[in-house]
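Thread: geranylgeranyl diphosphate complex, take 2
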Amino acid sequence: MTNIDIAKYLLEKKKIVDSAILKYFTHKNPLFQIMYYSVDGGKRIRPILSIASFESCGGSDIDTILPIACGLEFIHTYSLIHDDLPAIDNDDLRRGKASAHKKFGEARAILSGDGLFAYAFELFTEGNGLIREKFAAIKAVSEIIGPKGIVYGQTLDIDEKKTLSPKVLREIHLNKTAKFIAVSVKVGAIMAQSPKNTIDMLYNAGLCLGMLFQYTDDILDVIGEKDKIGKTPGKDIVSGKLTAPSIYGLDGTRFRAQRYAELAKAKFSTLGKNFEIFHALTDFVLNRTY
Ligand code: GRG
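Output below.
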């Protein structure tokens, strides 16, 4: 247990991220409005993780990490827009409102995702200095959002509807979700110029946090409230998706989520007291209702 007020922490950091994001949407070009529609409204977990890591690693100038934090959110939003498309998950609701293709039509939704994806990389290169670190951050992110990460995980996700294989489930969760969560933690450490072993340890701890995140996402699909989760509950069951509850049941999934939380916290503990915030963040992910 920590004395950190995690709700307050998340709210404060979300405000910082939200106002940084807003500054990137001052263009008059209407595509930016379509892009912003989908960006608006998320929890900002990935950018917050990158900031938490940056600060825990001793980083002090938040402007060093903020553009990258916003870029992570843009890539995440891009993946959500594409995930919701009729050809993939076909979901009408996202972040408590009509999903992008429902609001603007498929073509504009696809293009707004593409725009966010490219815009993220522009942000990653923003500002002067720390060229090596930016290069390392771009390499780390680009490695896990493509065919060795998110896109691979999503491909397995759409293919694997029949087998009830724990091994395949792990592969989907790891690639679709956990690596992106882990790399969000990693880039904070990179930008704080941390030593390689700290960066590696944080990435490994982040993978456990990411697996936990997808377990709680699967649980919320079964028991979550539409108003809180902002998307359609029960979709995984209807579409016959391979999820943790479909293999382990709800109680088994909760038990495994608890184990991932313990594992994540044990790994964050080895980094010392400066990383206490990650214990609170892990507990938040374990107990989240949205
Ligand atoms: C190339 C990046 C890229 C994507 C294309 C469609 C696709 C391939 C990937 C989809 C991956 C996906 C949607 C994974 C699920 C991850 C997940 C648990 C999303 C929900 O994240 P939250 O709860 O949502 O952080 P908010 O709205 O709060 O940001």
